[in-house]
Amino acid sequence: MNRTETLYLTETPRDSMQGWAKYIPVEIKAKYLNLLLKVGFDTLDCGSFVSAKAVPQMADTGEVLKLLEPGHLKTKLMVLVGNTRGGLMAASHSKIDIIAYPYSVSPTFLKRNLNTSQENAWKTITELQAVCGDSGKDLRVYVTMAFGNPYRDSYSEDLVLAAIDRLVLAGVEDLVLSDITGEGTADSIGKLCAKVVQSFPGLQTGIHLHSRTESWQNKTEAAWNAGIRSFESALGGIGGCPMTGYELLANLDTVELAGWCRKMNIPVDLDEGALCEAQRFAPELFIL
Question: Which fold has domain 8-250+262-284?
Answer without folding.
Answer: TIM Barrel (3.20.20)
